[in-house]
Structures are given as structure tokens and as C-alpha cells.
Amino acid sequence: MIRVIGTSPPNQPKKAIAYCRQSKDKKDGIDRQVEKCLKLIAERGWELVHAPFTDNDVSASSKKKKRPAYDQAMAMVKAKRCDVLVVSHMDRLYRRLVELEDIIPVVEQAEVMVVSIDGTYDLSTPMGRLVARNLCSAAQAEVEIKAERNVGKNVQAAQNGVRNKSGCRPFGYCADRFTPMDAGVSLNVVHGTPKNPCPTVDGAGWPSREPWHEVTVRIPDTAYDADGRVTATQSEADAIRDAIASVRRGGSLIAIERKWHSLGLRPPLAPFGPLREGNPWNHHTVKRILTNPHIAGWRSYRNGEIVAAGNWPPLVGVSDFEEAQVILTDPGRVRPGGALSLLGGIAECRCRAVVKRAARRNYGTYRCSAYEAGDAARTGPHVAVKAGLIDQYVADVLIETMGLPDAAELFADDTEEIDIPALKQRLGTLEKALAKLSLQNSMDLIPDSVFAVNAAEISAERELISAQIAEAGQVNAAAVLLASADVRATWEGMNISEQRAVVRQVMRVTLRPLGCGCRRPDLDQIVKIAWKVPVAA
Are residues 366 and 501 in the same domain? Predict the structure, then answer.
């Protein structure tokens, strides 16, 4: 027997509220729940004291997701502003036993009935709580079985190379997640469909402060019609291809980050709306894009493990992608500071100390690092000269030398090609050997002294092979200039980190002091260049 409880006087209708929830965004589904709840309230002669509380497209199975309407409904229950809480089914109210245990003391203290379309549940009695717990256990088991089934489905899809449809639009691809966002792509693909729309942003584009309108992704060199629709677009796909090539030429992620910012590209997690002040890109976002196997047409699952070839066109070649990964995932790789000068930290003073770039009012200078050590270290004279003059001189000499008819022979790379697959196989063998050694030591099969010696030898060989793999993955920076028909245009098209990689590879620059009172410096005497490869005089 169900005990009727409530706070309203006998002659007054009970005060009722309704709560409805739908896991997926299906408007008709939530409307049907509301209709059934209102019909029940009317049939019982209860008074609806608040508009129905609805959580649409909200799951009750997740601990992290908030249910705003649920919280409001429970607040009314706690405040004793209702006598009846109406739901279409009990699993609309809760899905987990722990949540039910939170609800029971609340409705018991407030003396509120919980009524569903299929019956009334008196959570203040042992039998009522038993029924509720059994139903909740069944609902929770259903959720767990469904989750296990979805995991199996996702694994199978990954093994078949099917594109992952969840999450934000992958950077470099259109709304269909299949077509590369290249220049001239069909607008229907760029905009997407009502079921699979492309992310939208505003009218004037970042860093505009104008109101944001429903248009489409605004990316560099984009042309718009009178209604703000895209008529032509520059390629996000080309931005990824250029970034992979830049990494292989020795470019830094920070330089790529700055370039994408200057082009107006939007991060994939911020497809619309105002962007934060400064550069919206960061080092981690760029690296995550460039190390994702999907840009090479590979399907990965969970921890980035490649499981199959994807069913979508790649943006970069597999070999280029793998070589870039060797560089980006090298444990010994030091994150560059995004150098703003061509020779800072590369060129040397006559005293053999490296020069650093320093700021002087409206211009930069190259200053010997010995100055920072104090007067005791000044065995000078040391160099201190305007950076702009030196940068231009070194660039002109480099471009002129690379443009010589026989430059290709002078800078020919005669080193033997490194077998990267063989090195990777050897690295894997060392990893297994170290793991086996650690297991034997943990089982006291070998003494600690033997383990320490062998582990040190294996670690040293691992570091050597990792360095060889990282070096092999880099493109010969000078070869990029040598292969160009217009060396100056290619040089000017490189970012500063790529230019520094070229200088570091082919020359050693020494700067000499100007001397007292020198206003027109002779750069031929100040800058001494020693080529690291044989160059004709």
C-alpha cells in the first residue's frame, strides 16, 4: 500500500512540478514527455506551480555533466514549494544508485511524492525505496551494457579505418570531415549540411569587436558575398602541409604558431566567437594537430595508436609525416624560445662567446654575452653592433653564394643515408631488453650493481640512436634554397627559425668590434663567415 503524503491542506489541490530529460537533442522527445506529465497532473486535479523543468540533450549517466533544470527542480523540493514531483519515467530523474541515495533523504524530509507515468513511488517507505533501487539498478546495468557495446563499435570502426565523427571539426578538413579544405572547394562542403554544419563565426573577422553573426569559418584570404557567405577560401590544408615542411626544415612550433596567427587561422576548439587577447594559438595546440596521424590518412584510437589506414584523403605524405614525428617527439628536443633574430645565440664574438640580441630603444643590437658576466670577464674588446645591418649582410652573402651556378656541387651532402626503420627496430629491441632487465632485478635474479651497469649501457645507446633518428628526420635546410629557382624569394618566404637553421647548418659567423668612433662600419671587416662546407673563393 502506498502512503499518501504532502504538505497541502486536504481541501486544496496538491502542488505539482514536472521534470523531463532527454539524453539526445530530439525536441519531439522532450515535448512528448512534457505532454504526458501535464496530462497526468490535469487528470489528478493537481495544481502546476511552475513551468516544466526540462534538460534537453543532457545525460544523467555522467558525473561531470550538470543538469541545470534538475538542480532547479530539487531546489523547489528542498524548499517544500511542491507536494508532487512528476516525471515520465523514473530513469529520467536518476540513472545511478548514488544519485538515488541523494534524492531519498531530500524527498523524505520534504514529504514530496515522486510520481511517474507508470506509477507512484513513496521513497519514504522501505518497500518504495526497494522498488526504486531495483529499477535504478536495472537502468544502471542498461547504461553499462550500452557503454560496453559502444566501445566495441568504436574499436571496430577504428580497425575498419572509418573517420571519427565526434568532437570538433578536424583542422584542415571541411564540415564533412572528409574533404580537405583546399582553395576552390565547393561551398556546400565548406558550409556543411543542417545535420552536419560547419562551425560559424562573425562578419569582420578577428580581431574585430563587431557583433558575431552566423556566417562560416573565416580563414585567410577569404572572399565574401553581400550576405557574408564564402565565395573563395584559402586552404587550411595548405597551412598543415607548410607546417610539416617547416618542421622538417628545422622550423619551430612557435614560428608556426605565429604564422597561423598572422594568417587569421582559428584554433579548432574556437570555431566561432571572440578570441582571447594576443595570439589565440599555443604551442600545445599546434603540436597536437601536427602529431595527429589523421593528417597522414591514418586512423588512430585512444592514445594515438595507429590501427588502420583511414577512408579519407591525407593532407601530407606518410614519409613526411613520420619524419616530422621523429623531430617533434624527440625526448631531447628543447622547446625553442621563438627566436626573433637571425644570429642571436648562433654568431660568436671574437672572444668565442656567443652574441645575444638586446633591445635598444628603436632598434636591436647584437651584444657579446661576456658583458653579462661583469667587469672581471671583460677581456675585450667585445662586439656590440646594430642587428639589422648584420642580418642584412649575412642574408645577402648567403643568398649570393646559394645562387652560384655550381652551388649544388659545393653544398652537396655526401653523408650516407641513415636507415631509419633499422634504427627504430634496434630502439625497440633496447626497450624490451631494458624492461626484461628491470623485471629480473625486481625478482632479485641479478644484483643491483649488474643492473645499474647494464641499464646505463642500454640507456646510452638509446640516447645515441634517438639522436640519429631525430637528425635523419630533418630536411637539409640548405637543399631547400639550392633547389629553388629564386633563392631570395625562397629565403624571404622562410620563417625566422628556418632561416636560423640554414645559417647554423652552412656557416659559422664571427663578429668583431666596431672600434671607437666608427659611424660607417665596414661590414666586410666586422663580419667573418667561415663556411662549414667547401665553397669556392
Answer: yes
Total domains in the chain come to: 4
Measured between alpha carbons, how far is 297 from 310 in angstroms, rounded to an integer? 5
- The 10s digit of each residue's pLDDT in 275-318 is 666 678 888 889 989 988 889 888 888 777 777 888 888 999 88
Asked whether residue 391 falls in the same domain as residue 266, the answer is no
Residue located via cell numbers 493537481: 46
463 has pLDDT over 60? yes
Residues of the domain holding 222:
187-328
Verify that 398 and 507 share a domain, yes or no: yes
The domain boundary, picked from 472, 498, 513, lies at 472
Contacts of 191 (CB under 8 A, 6+ apart): 175, 197, 198, 216, 229, 230
From edge to edge, which strands make up the β-sheet containing 384-386?
355-360, 363-368, 384-386
Judgement on whether residues 63 and 21 belong to the same structural domain of the protein: yes
Give 402-431 pLDDT, tens digit per residue: 888 777 666 655 555 666 677 777 877 888
Nearest to 239 by CA among 262, 272, 223, 216: 262
Q: Which amino acid is at 3?
A: R
163-206 pLDDT, tens digit each? 887 777 788 887 777 878 776 665 556 555 555 554 443 333 33
The residues pairing with 230 across neighbouring beta strands, listed in sequence order, are: 224
Grid coordinates representing 527 are 663580419
For residues 26 and 24, give the distance between their C-alpha atoms in angstroms, rounded to a whole number.
6
> HEC profile for 136-193?
HHHHHHHHHHHHHHHHHHHHHHHHCCCCCCCCCCCCCECCCCCCECCCCCCHHHHHEC
Are residues 468 and 497 part of one domain? no
Cis amide linkage into residue 126, ω under 30° from 0: no
Q: Which three cell numbers stand for residue 130?
A: 526497494
CA nearest neighbour of 481 among 503, 450, 448: 503
